[in-house]
Amino acid sequence: xxxxxxVLTSAAWALVFAAPAAADGWLxxxxxxxxxxxxxxxVYNPTPTNEKVTVQESKGKxxxxxxxxxxxxxxxxxxxxxxxxxxxxxxxxxxxTDWSSNPPPSTFPVLCSxxxxxxxxxxxxxxxxxxxxxxxxxxxxxxxxxxxxxAGGALGDVTATSEYQGTEQVTVPAFPEQVLxxxxxxxxxxxxxxxxxxxxxxxxxxWVYGVGPVKIVFEHQGGDAPVTxxxxxxxxxxxxxxxxxxxxxxxxxxxxxxxxxxxxKHLKQASVTEIAVDEVVNSTARFSAxxxxxxxxLAAAYIFTERLDGVSNVSVQARAATxxxxxxxxxxSAPKDRRRHFFTPFDxxxxxxxxxxxxxPAVGNEWxxxxxxxxxxxxGVTGSxxxxxxxxxxxxxxxxxxxxxxxKLTQAGFPFGSGTRTSYFAPGKGLVKLVFRHGDxxxxxxxxxx
Length: 450
Hints:
The protein is mainly beta.
């Protein structure tokens, strides 16, 4: 824009994320994509205001959208809004990297500690979407039970806690016969602004895969209880079925799993281990493992992350005292005191290479080890994994309909680290059974006890 109109801008943020595994369908950005939103504020803008959004630029995983109220048939009293907003698809989800627009109407609350140089606004659909949740705007993978924290505002002084609440059918002008949407609820907090408490409240966004947000409702705090609402009026984007949201490796703080592990040759007396989720921060979790009974006394800690490249183990710390002599593991390239051991069921589960599961696991998914890689230097394992189907699995903890994940593993020179591993993952529970047929002729079996 010319003439200094675009004066509301974002502050510079340093954001570092790994590249996502696949293109993000939650906010498509083909060059010809268009959306028209209509928004109101029950107190500060009761006049329905139409904004047209188009794609200004798209380069790989980064793209910029432009919006305008000009030429959209708005009433004279409707606010004028012109701006651009930039997004990036990352391994952790959709993030906002920049924005620029004209200032909000002077009648709106000031969302900064001072009036001058205030670069905060909620007076447009795009600003409403990123308020308190710039990083990320939408976390991925979007799975059942997902919760995450975010920040926003020009100075990062607006915080939010978000949760995915599942899917539901919604009706908006663009889709009058209902459309399946994924619902995300955010509790947003801003303190110290002149316009407090307008910047705080509860915002709900309904996302349609292949389209983007179709409805946003922000219930602000304050005595006059304003509500800002935006609905999708028109678009040339077509709804797509969303990825499956079943969570086969839930990261739920406080959850506990108890496993029994036996081996036909080397561990005939069961080793029983309890594994608990101690901490969870933005889809990264710390699991602890402790000895319950059996010949392996242990204490271990595991860090797992859940991103668009799948569920991956990034750290293991373990110590154990055992009365059984399990066969050694490799690789030969690693000093003996740095080689992995099988102490817990999780050691058997994560052995070989990442990911343990893809972000949105489905029957037919396949992946393989990579050399060179961090995992290959740690494990020295080659092999491949495939999700072969689903199966009813009965274990002491109950009966589960589980995803069947089969891996073929070869650790050169170490038969105990080679063989075929079949893992069974149940939605909302995680690993419920594992059978590892080792190259030395023995079989390890892990069952979820409770």
